[in-house]
Amino acid sequence: MVDPVTQELIGSSLLYTSEEMGVALRNSSYSPNIKERMDHSAALFDTQGRLLAQAEHIPVHLGSLPWGMRKIIEYCEKEGLEFENGSMIAVNNPYISGTHLNDVTVVKPIFSKEASKRSLIAFAANKAHHADVGGKVPGSISVDATSLFEEGFILNPTYLMRRNEFVRETLSTFCSNSRTPIERQGDLKAQVAANITGERRVLALIQKYGVKHFQDACKSSFDYARRLLVKRLAGMKKGTYKAQDYLEHPDGKHDIKLRVKVTLSDERVLVDYSGSDSEVQIPLNAVFGVTLSGVHYVIRTLTGKDIPPNHGAFELISVFAPEGTIVNPTFPSPVAGGNVETSQRNADLLYKALSKAMPRKIPAAAGGSMNNVMIGGVHKGQGWAFYETAGVGLGGRFGSDGVDGIQANMTNTMNTPIEEVERSMPLLITRYEFRENSSGAGQYRGGLGLIRAFQSRSDSKVTFTVLAERGRHEPWGLRGGKGGGKTKVLFRNSEGKTKDIPIKSTITLDKGETVELRTAGGGGYGPPRRRVRAMVQADIEDGLVSRDFSRKSGYKC
Question: Where are the domains of the chain?
Answer without folding.
Answer: 4-221, 363-557
